[in-house]
Design brief:
The structure holds two protein chains of two kinds. By secondary structure, chain A is α/β, with parallel strands linked by helices. Chain A has five helices and seven strands. A seven-stranded mixed sheet of chain A has the order 2-3-4-1-5-6-7, with helices on both faces. Chain A is globular and about 45 Å long. Chain B is mainly alpha-helical. Chain B has a single domain, classed as Arc Repressor Mutant, subunit A (Orthogonal Bundle), CATH 1.10.10.10. A three-stranded antiparallel sheet of chain B has the order 2-1-3. Chain B is globular and about 50 Å long. In chain B, 38% of the residues are buried. The chains are: A alpha/beta, B mainly alpha.
């Protein structure tokens, strides 16, 4: 469809006696991190509905893909993601998308990352390296994010400073330590992200 | 305040078009593999236009222009606004297939689509919409 000739809004040509329904609009927050680090757990902790799952077919022809060296020879890949929702008010809904664990797929799914308000990267202190790719991804795309150090396995023997150093985190990036199964921790993470966005918005250039 | 979903009794998640369906996805779209419109995103919110949808749902015909079962399910689900991703999850169909079906209903005026709130201004020097962030913050504090 030619982008220069958009289909006219179908509602305008209809007899409209009934008042137009209030249609809310949505924003999106991405939940990232290595496989099994607790992405869906966090989504479920704060979502008002049980996490939903959906799938998309991704093909090698997807735009913006120039390096698929890690992907096998299949023409089409199916990627699943889990998501939840928080109805902020009648006009605004926040969707939380747990991103597929393998970041290489994200490049094939522009719709997933485009327009995201920000992200949460979950890391596990026993295998911090599994979250490097998520951090790199958000940094390279310029998507603001906060880091959650998930302690649901109960042992965190490293200090916050040690973890920050190991992750090579920018000092401005908020980092919270807690249990992603706990709703109040999930809430605090999202609030930290919004506060971070407000700080960034308040003027101070990041770099 | 409503209880969190995990405290509610479990709902029966089975439905007629759930995991048991043996219909190949692109049969449902009558062979179409690409949506007519490319402006639907994962979080475009869909709302049923009750008056028109009720008329169509009351009509039992399923001719070439008639409603398929999936269309009917979409119209019922979107009486409460739902994102494209939610509709796809509800139908247990891939997002791309779901978008084709949604496009049919939008073209017939039975479904309204609302694009996501743009956060692209963040890329410029204008920063994000502080009103939006404040609203999100207030909503999150109630969690």
């Amino acid at each position: 469809m030619a982008p220069s000739a958009p289909r006219p809004s179908s509602s305008s040509s209809l007899p409209s006696r009934a008042p137009a329904p209030v249609v809310p609009a949505a924003v999106k927050i991405l939940i990232a991190g290595g496989f099994g680090v607790g992405k869906t757990t966090l989504v479920g902790a704060v979502s008002e509905v049980a996490p939903l799952r959906t799938e998309e077919y991704l093909t090698r022809a997807s735009e913006g893909v120039d390096d698929l060296s890690g992907v096998d020879n299949k023409e089409t890949t199916t990627v699943a993601l889990d998501f939840g929702r928080i109805t902020v008010n009648p006009e605004l809904v926040v969707y939380l998308f747990g991103t597929p664990g393998q970041e290489r797929f994200w490049f094939m799914w522009n719709d997933l990352v485009n327009g995201a308000l920000g992200g949460v990267v979950i890391a596990d202190t026993r295998r911090l390296d599994t979250s490097f790719a998520s951090i790199d991804f958000f940094e390279s795309r310029g998507i603001p994010f906060v880091v959650a150090i998930n302690c649901f396995h109960g042992h965190n023997t490293r200090t916050a400073d040690e973890i920050r150093a190991a992750l090579d985190l920018d000092p401005q990036v908020p980092m919270l330590i807690g249990d992603v199964r706990v709703r109040t921790f999930g809430r605090d993470l999202l609030l930290a992200l919004v506060d971070h966005l407000m700080e960034l918005s308040a003027g101070a250039p990041v770099r | 305040m409503r209880p969190h979903w995990s405290e509610l009794p479990e709902e029966d998640e089975d439905d007629d078009y759930g995991a048991g369906t043996m219909v190949r996805p692109y049969t449902i779209t009558r062979g179409r593999t690409a949506p007519e419109r490319d402006d639907l995103t994962l979080i475009t919110l869909m709302t049923t236009v009750e008056e028109l949808a009720d008329q169509a749902l009351a009509t039992r015909s399923s001719g070439p222009r008639g409603l398929q079962p999936e269309h009917r399910l979409i119209l019922e689900q979107c009486r409460r606004p739902a994102a494209v991703a939610e509709v796809a999850a509800g139908l247990n169909l891939p997002v791309s297939v779901t978008k084709i079906l949604l496009g049919d209903l939008i073209a017939q005026g039975m479904l309204l689509a609302r694009a996501p709130i743009s956060v692209a201004r963040a890329a410029g020097d204008g920063g994000l919409d502080l009103g939006l962030l404040t609203a999100v913050r207030e909503g999150l504090r109630r969690l």
